[in-house]
Amino acid sequence: MVLKIGTIGTSWITEQFIEAILASSAYDLGAIYTRDASKAAVINEKFGTKAAAFTDLDAFFASDIDVVYIASPNALHYRQVLQAIENDKHVIVEKPAVITPTQFEMVYSKLREHPNVRFFEAARHIHQPNFKKIAEQIKQMDRIQGATFVYNKYSSRFDAFLAGKNPNVFNPDFAGGAIEDLGIYPVYAAVALFGLPQDCQYFATKLSNGADGRGTAILRYADFDVTLIFGKNSNSYLASEIYGLEDSIVIDNIAELNSVLYHRNPTEAEQIADLPHENPMLAEVMVFAEIINNFDAHSEEYQKLLMLSQRVNNVVYQLRQTAALSFPADQEK
Q1: What ranges do the domains of the chain cover?
Q2: Are strands 3-8 and 119-122 parallel, antiparallel or unpaired?
């Protein structure tokens, strides 16, 4: 079944998502919610689609779409996710899906009330074939002794912040900052590959408005530590690594996964990555469509993804607490 999808948000990430769903042939773009209807017209012209434009969110959710893709500011995700589920729409929401464990529990509660609805957090990198190759290589290593995951990328909105503006991605009122954006990629990788840590600590470098511009997190496991380095106000070209004994895995970028080298020893290395698709969202949208359309065959996979999202939410929230990072939206229940 081709799924009719509606989008919330008109940023570059929404356009990349639309490119992915059209490339997959598993979805049709049926509706666009935006406060400015002219933006929907631009998207339709760019992609050759005929999606209906909505400036009223209630009318959007009442339309005949099957799936909602949510790419609004972080602080708006929670209420929009609940409204989608209440309207029996499947949900694909950009990370962070929600920002507190209490909110995640409410999402679980709503899903129980609407058992035919599927809920996905769009952590694209964990669905890519090269991430699965990393997971398989780890299983073959005799011992894991730690890892360092790096994702530092200078935000296109940081110049505006430096000029005195307060863009959403750096605004605590919208749950902005490094850990709730780029930081989620390395947290997802760590929890997906190694499970829940026993303890964690986040050393945040805060901006003048109280948001974290960058930081370093330590996840403590029984036998090793995982160090996460991430930020939105600088660039880094350091590789990410997983340490074995004499062997190690070296990843060019924990979010992009273009290169994955398995070093058996200091002189012998093998490239285990395949050339990724030009659109990094293609793998995830195909996984989501397969689960929705063939749920009985993929119910276990779905439950694992749901549990992983909840675990990541818990870890990110704990990290924020250790760094005294709070948002007004934390109080929403």
Answers
A1: 123-333
A2: unpaired
Q: Which CATH class is domain 123-333?
A: alpha beta
Nearest to 242, CA basis, from 134, 318, 155: 134
pTM score, whole prediction: 0.96
Q: Determine the distance from the C-alpha atom of residue 228 to the mean position of all C-alpha atoms in its chain, rounded to a whole number.
A: 16
Distance between CA 269 and CA 144 in Å, rounded?
18
* Residue in the block written with tokens 């008109």: 10
Got the DSSP string for 62-126? HSS-SEEEE-S-GGGHHHHHHHHHHTT-EEEEESPS-SSHHHHHHHHHHHHHSTT--EEEE-GGG
* Token code pair at residue 50: 């005929």
C-alpha 152/C-alpha 125 separation (Å) is 16
pLDDT tens figures, 290-317: 999 999 999 999 999 999 999 999 999 9
Question: How many residues are there in the chain?
Answer: 333
